Amino acid sequence: MMRVRIIGAGHSDRGDDACGLVAADMLRRVAGPDIDVVDGAADAAAMLALFEDVDGVIAVDCARGGGTPGDIVRLPADPAKWPKSRASSSHGNALADAVALGEALGALPPRFAVFAVVGTDFTLGAPLSPAVQAALPNLIRTVMQEAACMKPN
């Protein structure tokens, strides 16, 4: 059976940066048994390990810049092409570094996608901004559609 893993990245106490983790919680409720939903790791090596033993990976995160707050952006598999301001993430660059390392080592799964919601408030202790909160239902639909496309017909 083909397995897809959805990875929610972020920091739970940094406003919009919690978006990937909140999305992962929501996705656990709707994902089937062939979709594994996990919270991302804090460092690149541990994040890269989450790419192993699956046929497809969808990572969900929040981005600083790259569009209007609440926009859902599909990022290319090359982190060098990600919005430059993403480097100032409050949870570091574990996802970007893991993707870059995985690409360099040929260790990315055959099907790979990264979706980021453009955020505005990354303040310690802040809740999700209204724009990011409003984007969640569309993000969940988008990720589940992507997961369905990753499965063989």
Provide structural commentary.
The chain has 153 residues and is an alpha/beta fold. The chain is built from four helices and five strands. The protein is globular and about 35 Å long. The two termini are 12 Å apart.
Give a topology summary.
Layout: E1 4-8, H1 19-30, E2 35-39, H2 44-49, E3 56-64, E4 72-75, H3 94-105, E5 111-119, H4 130-150
Parallel strand pairs: 1-2, 1-3, 3-5
Antiparallel strand pairs: 4-5
Helix pairs in contact: 1-4
Task: Briefly say what this structure is.
The protein is built from four helices and five strands. It is of the alpha/beta class. It has a single domain, classed as HybD-like (Rossmann fold), CATH 3.40.50.
Largest sheet: spatial strand order? 2-1-3-5-4
Pick out the low-confidence regions: 85-91
Q: How many extended strands?
A: 5
For the largest beta-sheet, the strand count, sense and barrel status come to: 5 strands, mixed
The helical percent reads 25-40%
Separation, N- and C-terminal Cα atoms: 12 Å
Provide the β-strand percentage band. 15-25%
CATH superfamily: HybD-like
- Which term fits the overall shape? globular
Class of secondary structure makeup: alpha/beta
Helices and strands, in order, run as: EHEHEEHEH
* The top level CATH class name: Alpha Beta
**Overall mean confidence score, pLDDT:** 86
Comma- or semicolon-separated keywords:
153 residues, 4 helices, globular
